[in-house]
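Human: I hope this is not a bother. Would you mind checking the protein record under this note? Thank you for your patience.
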Amino acid sequence: MTQYHVLKNGSIQITDSEINELEDFLLLDEVPDGAMTLDSLDGFFTALVIGPATVPANIWFPYVWDMNGGGEKPNFENPEQADRILELLIKMMNSIAMRLSSSVEYYAPHPDTVEDGDVKDLLVMLWATGFMVGVNCSGSDWELLLRDKKFSILLSSIYMLSFKPNDPVPLPTKTFREVWDKVPYCVITIDEFWNTYRRQDQARAKGMALATEVERIGRNELCPCGSGKKFKKCCGR
C-alpha cells in the first residue's frame, strides 16, 4: 500500500468540495484533450496505490495530462494554481489508499457512484483505462504478478474493460457489467498479493539492517533491539 502524503496544511484526504474543484479544472479548455477524467484518475491512482512500489509524483504526474505519455501539459495560470492541482491529486490518491486500508468491505470504485447504465459503462471504461495506465506507469514492477496465473487473471479482467482502439469486437454489455461487478474483489486481492511481497521486502531490509548493526556492535554493548540487555545475552546469542 502506498504511504500517505501529509501535505503542508496537515490534511490527507480530499473533500467533496475539492473533488468538485478538481473536476472543474479538468474540464477547462486549458487542459489537454488527452487528460484524465475523475474516473480515469480514480482507476489510475488505484493502480498506483495497490501496486508493488511507490511511484514518485514526477513519474505519474505527466500521465494525468496525457494518458499516452506524449508530454502534453495544461496551461496553468500561475505556479500557485499548479501547486494547488497537484495538492488535490495527491489528496485524491491518499483518499483511495485510506479507503482500501481502513474499510475494504465498503470499497467502491468511482463509477459506482453513477446509476445510469450506459453512462456508467463509459465511466467504467475510463476507470479501467486509467488503471492500466497506472500499471504501465510502474514499468516492469508488475511482472511478478503477471507471471502468477491466478493473479494475472484478475488484472486481465480489468484490462478487458479498458479502451482498446484496435479491438473490433467489444464485450457484450451483460458480460461487461458482470466483469465490472468483480472489479472491487480484483482490486482488493491484487492489493493483498503485493502486500505479501512488501512485507517480505521489509523483513529482508530489516534483517540486512540488523546484520549491519551486528557487525559493529561489541558483545558487551547494549542490544540495538531496545531490550536493555547486553547484545551477547539478547540478539547476539
In short: The chain has one domain: 16-233. The radius of gyration is 22 Å. Confidence is low (pLDDT under 50) at residues 208-214. The domain at 16-233 is CATH 1.20.120.740 (Four Helix Bundle (Hemerythrin (Met), subunit A)).
